[in-house]
Predict the 3D structure of the following.
Amino acid sequence: MKQIAGVLLEVVQGDITKMEVDAIVNAANTSLLGGGGVDGAIHRTGGPEILEACKRIGGCPVGEAVITTAGKLKAKFVIHTVGPIWRGGENNEEALLRSCYRNSLQLAVEHRLHHVAFPNISTGVYCYPKELAAKAAIDEVVKFLQTNPKRSLERIVFVCYEPENTRLYQDILDKLENR
Ligand code: ADP
């Protein structure tokens, strides 16, 4: 656990659908119509209300984020963001992945949310290398917190489904200075 600009950053191993937070972030695809991985788990557990809200929104470009109800989930909202597909690393992947984290936090702040949980966006079927993704994710969240002093956020949880990601995130967080 680390504290950055008054906000707790935490790593948890487990299933993001079980998190009792204000918002969980979904690694969605541009159609917002559901898919496999964490997206499938969120829609399965949250029920049809989430899909209906996604259909009304109609889609989301890569790197951007939208917010919906969380249906039957314990969280209050789902923030759907679309990560980049890894295509070798020279196709703007890092900037797009960073904007997923930044835009998701921006939405959370606009809705005055306190606790937000992120999955490891793009590191499943989108094949983003796990260590690079973890570094970009944590660095972008830290930057956001340091450059947005007036905000509602109190705790941000990185929910890792795979032990390898838990280790990577823990190592990077351990090396961060408390600021
Ligand atoms: P993407 O298409 O963005 O790669 P995936 O859902 O395939 O999305 O994978 C993103 C990450 O979510 C992976 O690290 C995967 O292990 C993880 N994941 C899958 N199911 C869950 C879950 N229920 N809770 C949290 N993370 C999950």
About this structure: Residues 62 and 82 are 5 Å apart (CA to CA). The longest helix spans residues 93-110. The pocket of adenosine-5'-diphosphate is lined by residues 15-17, 27, 37-39, 41, 83, 119-126, 159, 161-162, 165 (CB under 6 Å).
